[in-house]
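Summary for the funding panel

The consortium committed to producing paired sequence-structure records for every protein in the target list. Below we show the first two records in order, beginning with the earlier of the two.
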Amino acid sequence: MAAALRQDVSVRLLRIGLLAIFLVGLANGLWWMGHKAERWYPGQDSHDYHLMALNLAHGQGLSREPGPPFVPTLHREPGYPAFVAAVFALANESDDAVAVVQSALVGLSAVLAALLARGVFGDARIALLAGLWTAILPDLGDHARYQMSEALFVPLLLLAALTLFHAWRTRSTRWGVLAGLTFAAAGYVRVMAFPTALLLVLGSLLLASAVCRFEIAECRFLRSARSNLHSAISNLHSHLHSSWAIVCLGVMLLAAAPWVARNALVLGQASFTSRGGGFLMPRGDKAAAPLDKQLEWTGIAAWVAAYPFSELVVPLSHLHREPYVWDGPLGDFELVDTTRAFGRYCQGASSMVAQDSCYTQEGLRMILSHPLQYVLLTPVEFTRLTFYTYPSKLMLFRNWTVWIGLVTLLLCVVSPVWRRPERLWLALLILAYTLPSIAGDAQNRYGVPLVPLYAMFFAAGVVWFMDFLRRSAKPASQEQPRLPAY
């Protein structure tokens, strides 16, 4: 009776904590909305999304054209423009209304991060800290204030990960269906969700098999009871039953098929998006760059990852010139060198589809010509994806979250004491998103979905470290006699 009462109280406290986390996330987005007035930037990605949403709201279809004839496009995924268009239809095309809704999505992302952390670590303290830390992260708040796909992609990816986690643990085809649908929804916003799902499902199957085989080997080594060995073998056969994984991937592909069919019929290209070349070509251009330029990128990547300590060695003034954010080597590293690469190739293409096809060919040619450089520059792309480039409070928040999260992740992977299948699964999720992202040009905003995932390991590391300090302090406090209180 007492145990049931305690469980009921803990569930109520968790619900209250999740509500508080949602409100903190909402407040974070609203603060950034008031702090910066821009809702989209002319000539940048946010302007593209804004224009496509207006065209959809006015019944002109998915087009990037500012006026007639409103030529259809597959340059960007349709999910986020459709989301913004829906808000426009309900709120008289108000950009501020979009920012308010996206602020609520920050709170939702934080709640989903807490729920996933609860499932992975089985500790309410870690779950609540992960959710709270996600709710206050400047990355999510800043992306909520203006029209960028990350505002919608982050909660969808977290929801997809949560459903797939339950499908993997329960081996339920129902959860597999939900996981497939949510990953497809995320893919309609950012196509990177599709390779992430494929890698994560395959990794989940391998992880389940490895865990069960280890249990069998352990039972045999320890000469455990025959019933324990039989149970371990049964678990192996159960985990190898991969119907949930087949269902998940099948549903995801079926949900993506209508958009591919639309592109094939309307635009004559059977693909989900036409940005593959733009993703691949800058990576090939870097592989073919002179050695001194490659060494410069490597040095700046080390500086960014080691900030703020790196500023004691190389002052910021050597890498960045005020007042323009893109002036200097930091700006070159973050975006400008990528923009310059686009200006060097495929300028005579007849259309955006033809230009992207040309970019793909050029990128593959340069990568195949310089495979070693391509591989050696992968840490540079990892840094561009994972860490924030410009010195600021946002940089400190993200970089310290990533570093503490990475250390905890490695501890969970390497140490038998801390290793658990659920923690390895979360590490697999980070790897499944990171690998396809750094195969091409890894822009900094593509790393925003990783921040809540690292925040979960960050929260676990902080809670475990505090537990260690508490345990270490106990014997000392017991040995020292208490002074009388006066």
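The next record, for a separate protein in the list, is shown here:
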Amino acid sequence: MVMIEIVSIAIVFIILIVLIAILIILNKILTKKVKLETEKYDIYKISLDQIEPKIENIETFNKLVRGFFKEVYGFDYNLTYLELSEKFNSIDKEIARFCILMSTTLYSGREIKEKDIQKLKDYFKKVISNL
């Protein structure tokens, strides 16, 4: 009788050790995944900081933004900003507003100024930081 109790306690103890080991391994895996996602956003922030708000850099900025939407959300690179805005309307209103601002700035026909590019950069940095 005592032997059965000792064996039962030992089995429970072994099961607990195995469960704890599994949880530790899963925690390490999830921590690595979170770190990779965070680093992915950091790469975009660094790239964004390297783009000077000059008119000749608007296309570079545009490609960075489109690449971000493709990589993070899986949206087609060729969608217009108005189409992206519609898609983001149900996901994130702030990003939807950013897409409308991008569309207005790029395609309204008015001259794009350095302050417009800086405004877009600041807005996009805010969008990335909120994720």
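Regarding this second record: The chain has a mean pLDDT of 91. The helical segments are 2-50, 58-73, 81-89, 93-107, 114-129.
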